[in-house]
Design goal:
single chain; mainly alpha
Length: 199
């Protein structure tokens, strides 16, 4: 019986696994040093991969940050959907959702507003997309609560978008200035504002 030859070397890592390793490595690198001081070489060293692997997935360092924003946004939407499914008390639901949003990014200081080029455009488009998605969740939640007689009115879509856009701008600024802890400490005031705005 003739045995098939086994391929030499390590098995090939799937593309999606490589991509996620690079994203995780970039997040770890950003936690250690300011984003502006980090190089692609540092990210690939942190991932235990090659520069060629990096450029197979991303055009630039800014591109990987845009991907981090996209990844975090997907996590946030999933978390909010779970909170809305599992939390019955309205104030507790808003409180948990707000905390999930405020704790979305780790304590790095990346000024997402200053990312230029195609990556900057992608970050802005993703932010707008996630604000729309969260607005859909909030409005649907209020519609269900209104149908059950729990709230007097359903806020207009533009009201929800206005508050969420303001919250996004505020949180992006605090993150870029390295004031994440300060932003999280504002949660009681922000919660009070959100509850008052829609009742």
């Amino acid at each position: 019986m003739i045995r098939a030859k086994r391929p030499r070397g390590r098995p090939k890592i799937p593309k999606e696994v490589q991509r996620q390793r690079l994203i995780d490595a970039a997040l770890r690198a950003i936690k250690k040093r300011p984003y502006e001081q980090i190089s692609v070489a540092e990210i690939v060293r942190e991932a235990g991969m090659s520069s060629r692997s990096f450029y197979d997935h991303f055009v630039s360092k800014e591109g990987i940050v845009a991907e981090i924003v996209r990844d975090r946004g997907r996590v946030l939407i999933g978390t909010l959907e779970e909170i809305y499914r599992s939390t019955k008390n309205d104030v507790e639901r808003v409180d948990r959702a707000l905390r999930a949003y405020l704790e979305l990014f780790p304590a790095e200081t990346v000024d997402l507003e200053k990312i230029g080029g195609e990556a900057g455009q992608r970050v802005r488009e993703m932010r707008d997309h996630y604000i729309e998605s969260i607005t859909d969740l909030v409005v649907a939640q209020y519609q269900r609560a209104h149908e059950r007689g729990l709230v007097a009115r359903v806020p207009a879509r533009f009201e929800v978008e206005l508050l969420l856009t303001g919250l996004a701008g505020l949180s992006f600024r605090y993150y870029s200035e390295g004031r994440r802890a300060e932003l999280i400490e504002l949660q009681p005031e922000l919660l009070s504002l959100l509850v008052r705005a829609f009742h």
